[in-house]
């Protein structure tokens, strides 16, 4: 296991460069020391929990879920009785009255006038309505609202899965670039020491001047690569911190390989299809289309409701107006306002489309799982195979260093051994990064993020 020793290495190299006349190298080492001392170790699970608590996008998704749940409550409330208060002040051009001709009864009788309604009057009443039968419109509205909640939950889960993979990549990038900077630093240190030996041996006449120049060229190249690695690490840290709104501690200890035991291919595919938010969104769309089909069919049926109203302004009532009334109200739309057959056909087509989308999504998920498993297996094999190569390269470098000091190997032999070791170490770290990022994507597909965190 290789660990990031940012502080120790920076201090050691700072002591080394203080004896050299390289102001830029000294300044660069001071920057590394300050960067290393600012890092505080934090577990990946702790950082993920912090991101979940403060990410604005996920908080917005929660509010959208609350809004959809409130819509469900509103749809269910349509089953409750409705109470309506209405008040109206009226003015007529003349009062309403009734003239009765009494001459039929009495030869000398005069017409008699009975007033019915004044020129101005109030009409104030409370009406209560309770739906008894709507043909399934209310149930369809509730089902559609619940489908919206399911769709919004799936959308939040999809956003969280995407955030999870992005977070893991950036978290691991901090580790990867820190380890790469450490490897480049060690390579630079070894080549600097090699250059110092080459200078002494050239002054003693043991090696040619060209070998010393070759050592200096490779030392300068290693210094540039070290600086580039440091810059890449700074960019990785900035990208990682940009995910958070508050201060976040940086991971310091590098990764070590741990084997992941997952389910068999069939069980993994079934779990992924069952838990994938994309499939859940398709299911929600189909459920909403089925609710729409139910509502469109309800348009062909009558609606039945109980009603009761009470007149409050009884002083302005005529003898023909009741103070209260109650009964059953039936309404049946026979024709008009849209083509109900076409509306049903539209929802049926949406249901069929959802079936096809779900089948295609299941196939795509299975293919994606196979790709991730292939990536994981390849990265695991590459990492494990590179360990023996690294051991051999370390021993080869040690022998080349000893042989060069004894004058039986050239400067180029030691430089080649150092470059080979550096390349293998960098390749090993990249394989480990690919291994864990592919695992993160696989566990996100199968809703097994908790098992991913158990590896750390």
Structure summary:
The protein has 456 residues and is an alpha+beta fold. Helices cover 66% and strands 11% of the residues.
Summing up helix and strand content along with how strands pair, one would put the structural category as alpha+beta
Poorly predicted sequence stretches spanning 5 or more consecutive residues: 1-40
Q: What is the makeup of the main sheet?
A: 4 strands, antiparallel
Number of strands: 6
Total domains: 2
- Summed over residues and divided by their number, the pLDDT gives a mean of 85
* CATH architecture term of the largest domain: Up-down Bundle
Strand order of the largest sheet: 1-4-5-6
Computed Rg? 41 Å
CATH topology of the largest domain: Outer membrane efflux proteins (OEP)
**SS summary, helix count:** 11
Beta-strand proportion? 5-15%
> What would the principal axes of the Cα set say about the shape?
rod-shaped
Describe the structure.
The chain folds into two domains: 1-38; 39-80 and 135-453, Up-down Bundle (Outer membrane efflux proteins (OEP)). The chain has 456 residues and is an alpha+beta fold. The model is unreliable at 1-40 (pLDDT under 50). The chain is 66% helix and 11% strand.
């Amino acid at each position: 296991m290789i660990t990031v020793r940012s502080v120790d290495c920076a201090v050691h190299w700072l002591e080394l460069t203080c004896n050299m006349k390289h102001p830029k190298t000294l300044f660069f080492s001071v920057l590394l020391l300050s960067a290393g001392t600012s890092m505080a170790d934090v577990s990946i699970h702790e950082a993920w929990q912090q991101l979940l608590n403060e990410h604005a996008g996920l908080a917005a998704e929660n509010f959208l879920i609350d809004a959809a749940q409130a819509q469900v409550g509103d749809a269910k409330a349509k089953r409750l009785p409705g109470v309506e208060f209405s008040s109206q002040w009226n003015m007529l051009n003349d009062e309403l009255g009734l003239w009765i001709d009494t001459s039929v009864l009495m030869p000398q009788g005069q017409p008699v006038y009975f007033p019915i309604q004044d020129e101005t009057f109030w009409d104030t009443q409370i009406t209560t309505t309770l739906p008894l039968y709507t043909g399934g419109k209310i149930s369809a509205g509730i089902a559609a609202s619940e489908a919206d909640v399911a769709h919004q939950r799936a959308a939040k889960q999809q956003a969280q899965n995407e955030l999870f993979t992005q977070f893991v990549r950036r978290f691991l990038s901090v580790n990867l670039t820190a380890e790469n900077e450490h490897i480049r630093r060690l390579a630079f240190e070894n080549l600097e020491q090699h250059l110092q030996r080459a200078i002494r041996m050239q002054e003693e006449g043991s090696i040619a001047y060209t070998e010393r120049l070759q050592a200096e060229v490779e030392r300068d190249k290693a210094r540039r690569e070290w600086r580039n690695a440091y810059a890449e690490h700074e960019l990785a840290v900035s990208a990682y911190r940009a995910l958070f709104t508050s201060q976040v501690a940086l991971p310091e200890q590098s990764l070590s390989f741990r084997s992941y035991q997952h389910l068999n291919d069939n069980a993994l595919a079934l779990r992924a299809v069952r838990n994938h938010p994309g499939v859940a969104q398709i299911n929600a769309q189909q459920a909403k289309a089925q609710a729409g089909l139910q509502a469109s069919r309800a348009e062909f049926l009558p609606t039945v409701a109980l009603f009761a109203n009470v007149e409050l302004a009884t002083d302005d009532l005529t003898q023909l107006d009741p103070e209260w009334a109650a009964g059953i109200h039936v309404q049946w739309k026979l024709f008009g306002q849209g083509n109900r057959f076409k509306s049903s056909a539209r929802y049926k087509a949406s249901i069929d489309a959802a079936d096809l989308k779900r089948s295609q999504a299941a196939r795509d998920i299975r293919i994606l799982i196979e790709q991730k498993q292939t990536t994981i297996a390849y990265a695991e094999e590459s990492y494990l195979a590179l360990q023996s190569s690294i051991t051999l390269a370390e021993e080869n470098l040690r022998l080349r260093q000893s042989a060069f000091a004894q004058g039986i190997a050239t400067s180029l032999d030691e430089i080649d051994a150092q470059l080979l070791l550096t390349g293998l170490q960098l390749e090993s770290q990249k394989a480990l990064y690919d291994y864990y990022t592919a695992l993160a994507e696989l566990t996100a597909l199968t809703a097994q993020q908790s098992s991913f965190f158990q590896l750390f």
